[in-house]
Amino acid sequence: MAQIECGRGHLYDPEKYPTCPYCKNNQQITVAAAGRTAPIRVTDTSRTAPLSGTPVTAAQKTAPLTPQPAPAAPGGAIPVTADSKTMPPRGYAPQAAIPVTAPQKTMPPRGYAPAAPAPAEAPEPTAPPKFHGPSVLDAGKTVGMMQEQMGFDPVVGWLACVEGPSRGKSYTIRGGINSIGRGDRMDITITGDRTISMENHARISYSDRNNRFNLLPGDGRNIVYLNGEEVFSATPLQAYDLIDFGETKLLFVPLCGERFTWKQEAEQTEHERV
After folding, report:
1. How confident is the model over 181-190, as pLDDT tens digits?
2. How far is CA 27 from CA 5, 7, 18, 36, in A?
3. Whole-model pTM?
């Protein structure tokens, strides 16, 4: 028969002794089954009855009833034995961390977008010639005879808008043929009047050889009027003639004429030098 342990750690045979013979009958033992009998009453309140067959020594009076928590992993990491973690496969070894400062291993943060390169500085625009604006050579136009001879493109007259969307504006007439229209490519650009064609609605010419102005019809759909009369061919212009384009009416004001020409001015200047 296996021996049992009393509440004070004494071992005895329950078939021979109903109580612990060493405790002077201070403990009552009931034998439930051989080899599995446990004490049912402890008279000494300072002692805890053992839960297994291991005797309780003086240095170990109370058996722990609650499991102790596992030691925390270093660095605040979650141990792999936690319920929320998956055990790594056998033979797995974590790789050493690569510093993000390494030039070949730098990883941009999520959502990072590289800054757009600074736009190249636009070249400074070249100042136009002082005489009247952009050079006609740059615009792809043929150089006029007066400009070729004099070295600049002189003004020979003006058109003043006296009625229409551009009322109050003036337009410069130069030597040779001046094309009139709404487009930017025209020599005289009149905006705001849709009855004027984009290109070559009409033309005004000045001949320095004959010192004479003429109004010529262009390729526009609408008819050009001079002092109320239709213009279908070259018609001489006189000072203060009224040119009618429909909504827009222009007053002709010449500079060159009987009292002044650029040719006479150039000859007089040359004579004074001599």
Report:
1. 999 999 999 9
2. 11, 8, 10, 17
3. 0.46
